[in-house]
Amino acid sequence: MSISSLVIDAATDEHGRQALASIAGDPRFTLGPSYGNRHAVVIDTPSVAEDTDAFAWLSDLPGVRLVTLVRAYLDDEALPAGAAANYL
Length: 88
Fold this sequence. Notes:
Elements: E1 2-10, H1 14-24, E2 29-35, E3 38-45, H2 48-60, E4 64-74
Antiparallel strand pairs: 1-3, 1-4, 2-3
């Protein structure tokens, strides 16, 4: 299991609204509280690779101007053998 807490900066135009709708409709993401154009987001995936893919998708989403990682939880079982040293 891999869980990441993020803050995104969404555009204030139609692109930002569409980005938020796309995020809300994707089961990998949970939208949390927002303050202006900054929105809390949680990524919850079964593996580190899927978490990384979800982060990349979010970063490339039109209307998302910035993605800031707040905290990541990587379950030891989600890491490939021998990979734990790369995440310390």
